[in-house]
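Lecture notes, structural biology module. Today: joint structure prediction for complexes of two components.
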Amino acid sequence: MEHAIVLKPEILGFYNINVAGFALKNLPITNTLLVSWLAMIILIIISLVATWKLKAVPSKLQNFFEMIIEFGYQTVEDLSGSKKAKVFFPIVMTFFLFILTANWMGLLPGFGTLTLSQKPLLRSINSDLNMTLALALVSAALTHIFAIKYLGLGNYLKRWFSLQLFPVFLFVGFLEIISEITKVISLSFRLFGNIFAGEVVLSTVSSIFAFVVPLPFYFLEIIVGFVQAAVFMMLTLVFMVILSEKHAAEEH
Amino acid sequence: MCLVTFTVLVTIHMEILNQFGISPILLAAQVVNFFILLFILKKLLYNPILKVLETRKKKIEESLKNAQEIELKLQATEEQSEKIIEKTLKQSQQILDETKEASSQMLDDAKNTAAEIITKANEQAIELKKAEYMKLEQEVKENAASLVSLVFEKVIGKRITSEDQKALIEKEVKNLS
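The predicted structure, tokenised, for the full assembly:
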């Protein structure tokens, strides 16, 4: 492979937007951003086709999506109860579908090999920390928003700042705040690390011998891509459920 | 002191973020991407399919309920038909019994009448025999009388008339006295 994989995503060009007086100059378009738009378009087209003509007796694609969505909804409902499931489900499912599509798209031929002015045109989305960090931030932000929504601001703050001025409780609150920061870091770096490492492994193996030998690694990456999507989804769901339930110390 | 360590930490952090090519605009772009995708997928994929699943669930529940009702109805009709069959069996048994009784009675009657007829016929036959016998006796008597008179005629050579008879009788009577 000609291009060594670097940590930074390659910037393909800059774009200027001017919407209603709000000007954004030099908006960088990276190859990962481009691919994430492609992934969105693919997902939207597939879902359009799947639900184009909804029938009581489903067609093959509709049946497939019904299966996925029913399984996802059942999982969310089991963990969070049917009331919260309606709110949590779309977010969690979108994380799963988007990350899965992104990971599997990154394995397609052309990724890393097609170039535009000596920069790779396509790059697996999650091999860019920007993308995974953005997803992790969205996940964390939504988690806290739901916590405030379901607990109320007072109950929400009690988790972090105990009213009892006892050093242990203060320390526990501090630890909780630290754990929230680590959640974001672990979510983003787990996804980024797995996919980036996969890309490096694939390019290295391909540069040693490009025929047949990389195949087992491709299978491995297919599994890793699925597992990482599922892990991100499940962790987001679990964090949402835990934070939107009353703090255990309060029930005493 | 504290401020210095903080600034050092922040600069190290910025350095790491720089190495990974983190830029706030890209982060914001990806966040916007995610929310657009969330909105569109919710409209296009989740809501319609969840609706379909919900309606299907309801339909299945309904049809299951219907099936149960049908089964209950079937059971009831089965019970009813059993009852009816039992009733008809009883009735037919009754009818059979009745007819048996009637037929046996009729048979008895017939036997009785037959016996009566036979006895009557027997009696009649006996009477008839008697009458014939008497007739025969009479005939025999008559014939015997004429035979006697014929024998007398042959012996006496004379036809016995009633006068003769009288005379004979008188003679006999005279002899007796």
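Point to remember: The interface with chain B takes residues 7-9, 24, 27-28, 30, 33, 36-37, 40, 43-44, 47-48, 50-51, 54, 56, 58, 62, 65-66, 69-70, 73, 89-91, 93-94, 97-98, 128-131, 133-135, 137-138 of chain A (CB under 8 Å).
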